[in-house]
Amino acid sequence: MMGLSINVKPSLDQKPDHIKMDSQQRSLCFISLAFLFITCSSAEFLIQQVTQGRGTENNSSYSLDANLGVTRVLRHERPSSKIVTIAGYSVIKGRGEPYESSVFEAAGYKWRLVLYVVGNANDGGAGYISLYVRIEETESLPFGWELNNVDLKLFVHNPKLNKYLTVTDGALKRFNGVKKELGFGQLIALSTFENTNEGYIVQDTCSFGAEILIVKPAEVQEKVTFISNPPDNVFTWKILRFSNLEDKFYYSADFLTDTGFGPNAVATNTWGALHPIRSGYGVGVNNIILLADLNDASKGYLVNDAIIFEAEMVKVSVTNIVSV
């Protein structure tokens, strides 16, 4: 990112002796363009509240309910790690025991889903569905093992809406020899889950799921700073035989170099080059000077069929990749 000032510079050193200009006429004539860069962010959210005992039907893509740090969001996408469909919810509920899924692999480890259809009373789950994931086959892990930065989301399918109720608390989990099983004692209220109008159970069938990811913290970061009037920031471009130019566009040479190749260069990745004004090709102005003024000898812009352009970088961004 850079701010750019472009000037048309009169060729005073080449003016014929018979052309006299007062002190104001001998001063440089600049036509400048200042750029203000604004980063804008915008977002649109379609939000639908998911509350106990109230229907969730509408056309929003997402619904959101935060309660005691737990966020519940309806989404279309299936969970990426595991889906368990139970064709016989009433049978499992009648047994009164937690249901354990088969072993599945996610994020390089083995897991099981553990479902309490009548709620885990030891975790405040009375009157709720409780759902957890448990890490398995830990005997193959090193002594004193610990698995950190686990992003865990648990799901309840709603066939009526064709969406998944996604439950998370936003906190990265830590599994170890003491805590092998983590999840939510209050995944969804039984009064909501078993309400036929809500649509979670269809013909005694329901589905649950899990998404397990391990967040790897970034080791490097992009650091951006801004410098006003950097060194060697003025470039002069002299074009001879101006009246003989035939092409529609002309390009100057690169006038700022990469770091390490130019003396006094500011630390940055790429400075860039000056290009004529054309959509998608650069920055500048397409009406920098009137042709009448350019061809007016008394103005001093075009002398001996030569013209001088000058560009000045008034502000640049400096980007470096550094360790966090």
From TrEMBL:
Family matches, as SUPFAM superfamilies: TRAF domain-like
Coiled-coil positions: none
Location of the MATH domain: 79-212
Family annotation (InterPro entries): MATH/TRAF_dom (IPR002083), TRAF-like (IPR008974)
Alphabetical list of PROSITE patterns matching this protein: MATH (PS50144)
Recorded superkingdom: Eukaryota
SMART domains registered for this protein in UniProt: MATH (SM00061)
Protein name: MATH domain-containing protein
